[in-house]
Amino acid sequence: MGGKIYFDTHFWTLIQVKGQVSEINFEIISKTSQRLPVLVNAVKLSSPDGNDNLVLTILDISQRKQYEKELLKAKRLAEENAAKLFEKNTELERFSHIVSHDLKSPIRTMSGLFEIMERKGFVSKDKDSMQIQKLIMDSLRRMKTLVDDLMEQTMIEKEPADFDLVDLNAVFDIVSEILGNEIKNSFTKIEVPVLPLVRGNKSQIIRLFQNLISNAIKYKGEESPFIKISWQKLEEMVQITVTDNGIGFDPIHKDRIFEYMHRLHSYSQIPGSGIGLYSCKRIVESHGGIITASSKLGYGASFIFTLPMAVHEKENES
Questions:
Q1: Which letter does DSSP use for residue 179 in this model?
Q2: 168 pLDDT above the threshold of 90
Q3: Which site in 25, 147, 195, 307 is 20 to 30 Å from 93, CA atoms measured?
Q4: For 292-304, what is each residue's pLDDT tens digit?
Q5: Based on the number of CB atoms within 10 Å of its own CB, is 76 exposed (0-12), middle (13-18) or buried (19 or more)?
Q6: How far is 260 from 248, CA to CA, in rounded Å?
């Protein structure tokens, strides 16, 4: 900011040498003794009588200076938030370590010890004891499911949002292999067409399809599960629908089923943690898409979501 010294030693010197100055910052004192930031432009003009005249334009830049202060404040706030986010991510990594080691290990140990006790006959076989044993093993399995699902959600949150070309046919093949036993043991039939290419994070999209297909098997009705996958192009996105013939749900829950750890059934009825569909929502939204569901109790369910269309698909369409 130019002051009196700068005015005396530089401003006039520049006027004399160059004949003009542009956008020089000064502070002037107003009649009310307020300091006003101004921008000064000056041009020296010679008159016919040999006298020099100075033409000055003075622009009040108070608002601009206030805007600059607000920008600096916003920048500092953004840097502070970035530092806090880094700290939270670090805490999330520590949490992942605790979950994967300090929680899963005792669960495995308790399950193993209980099985040994059963084999060695240390556990009573009377009705009440057997009921207690079942409650213990169910609780351990429930805890293991919850820990596994929390770990999966943590991994989703940690993964970078790097998008590549993803072949959904390859994704389906991988998911079919992962869920091979579930599909075989439940006599599940899956109807799937040739699927398109999309842009996204392959490992996350694998989890997305795995969760939806596994859910369709888990919430099966009296008949063997039948799952139909279909898709269509919607401008810049690909819309994919996964439909099943399971027990379905009341339409009033179509939004709540995507909430964190929200379940429509007790664990004793259908095992689960309530994180699967929440993870699906997070994955789809991280890809710039949306996911919705439609159903009628007793008549199956459809899950509809969108993913970014691959450039290759756009070219074929045109």
A1: T
A2: yes
A3: 307
A4: 999 888 888 999 9
A5: exposed
A6: 19
